Q: What sequence folds into this?
């Protein structure tokens, strides 16, 4: 059975590879393909490192990898360090080398945290020695992290490293329309344009608006129109 997620940590149901938007010329396409193989245990790689600015999709892809691991019966653990950074790192990472896949998100949180850096350094070595897989996500590249433990910084550069690129405005428009179809409702392009130009531009915020509209339209039994968006989102 897959490993239980501790300390209230959970995966978003909508974090899947299927609804990760990719434009035809998107450099993220190669990353997604390799990550799917990695998450299902069909890749010989032991470590992958994804990084990109907020809203570029790092967290989405890490959670998508966990969804694949769960679906294929692999033992996994997802650790968002933003939520766990104040916990005891030794307790958090204890025994993780026995799992098939460990996903650690928000790695930039360990900057200035000597105890976490030491704990992750030893975990990295244990995972490598046991032939397990490690997937890391951060807002900075391995070299760009301000770490005091040089050995950990060196380890982080051993695996495959990919930078995720944020969506352009036209891509965000396409992502909103695609996500609405996957949620089972129609979002006309003019309505998507209205949301894009008036709501926060961060993709997480945009998708949160979409989720709010989906719930409201189901409850009110109304189509998503510009007047309805104005009413529900107050924009």
A:
């Amino acid at each position: 059975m897959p490993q239980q997620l501790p300390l209230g940590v959970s995966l978003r149901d909508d974090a899947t590879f299927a609804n990760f938007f990719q434009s035809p010329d998107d450099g993220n396409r190669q990353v997604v393909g390799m990550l799917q193989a990695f998450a299902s245990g069909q890749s010989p790689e032991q470590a992958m490192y994804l990084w990109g600015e907020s809203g570029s999709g790092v967290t989405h892809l890490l959670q998508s990898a966990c969804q694949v691991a769960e679906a294929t019966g692999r033992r996994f653990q997802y650790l968002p360090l933003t939520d766990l950074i104040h916990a005891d790192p030794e307790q958090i990472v204890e025994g993780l080398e026995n799992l098939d896949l460990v996903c650690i998100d928000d790695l930039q949180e360990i900057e200035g945290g000597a105890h976490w850096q030491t704990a992750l350094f030893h975990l990295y070595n244990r995972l490598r020695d046991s032939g397990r897989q490690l997937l890391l996500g951060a807002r900075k590249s391995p070299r760009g992290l301000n770490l005091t433990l040089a050995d950990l910084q060196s380890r982080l550069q051993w695996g495959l490293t990919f930078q995720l690129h944020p969506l352009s405005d036209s891509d965000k428009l396409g992502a909103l329309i695609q996500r609405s179809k996957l949620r089972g409702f129609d979002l006309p392009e003019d309505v998507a344009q209205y949301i894009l130009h008036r709501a926060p531009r961060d993709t997480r915020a945009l998708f949160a608006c979409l989720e709010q509209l989906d719930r409201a339209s189901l409850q009110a039994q109304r189509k998503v129109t510009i007047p309805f968006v104005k009413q529900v989102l107050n924009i």
